[in-house]
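Many introductory courses stop at the sequence. We go one step further.
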Amino acid sequence: MSRLNYHHLYYFWQVAVTGNLTRTAEQLHISQSALSTQIRNLEDNLECQLFDREGRKLVLTEAGQRAMQFAEDIFHRGAELESLLRLGVSSANKRLRIGTTSHMSRNFIEEFIGPAMQDAEASVSLVSDNQNKLVDNLTRHELDVVLTNANVEISDNQAWQIQLLSRQPVAIVCPPALATADLKAHSWVLPSRKHAIRGEFDAFCLRRGFSPTLKAEVDDMAMLRLMARDSQAFAVLPRVVAKDELATGRLVEREALTGVYERFYAITVERIFKPELLDVLLAGYD
């Protein structure tokens, strides 16, 4: 019989994630001494040292790093199993939990989930939050996929799967009244500097030799679209964001920003079970 105590392994995993015994004990609602004892019992059973202490911080030994890799896989698989059994296998195939960053184009999200909305048996749940929290929920199998327009950092202990879904051209748009107006003579509504396309636009202005008069800068693309539509100003947007306004003539495209694109990504984690519905949606972008 295996001597590995998975309860002790779980405590080791939690301490390894934080690198701090006190903080982990508080999160797990146990005493620090009890947690230390659990870790020491695990080391005794495995006959190896898993942590070195550097000041107040615990650092993984070489054996601890290997144990951490296995613990990550074991407990992520456990979370996946629990999620699957709670949903039921048949319903899980047709249910999709999608996380979206607040900066994402609502038009693109609607396009992505379009096939699911046409499926009478499909069920989609959309959650909007900051990217770090969404990816954390993805890791715990509380989400099936995260949609983002920003890159995600690769973890040493987690095999992220990142798929580029689309590259959307970016353009200068404006109300029809400004269609022939001087770019330097009017104010601008721009994405905030959190967006990669803002840096591309700043480079465009430098090449043209002008500094835009800023009327507003906005994080949320949906709000940026509304401000572009309702204010007498130039705006910089991916075409997909303003496609309805461009189609109806409420906005016109003044100029494309050549070579500038907003990129949309799908982030998933390696798992044994993947909902069939997710495969269907991702296949539309292969």
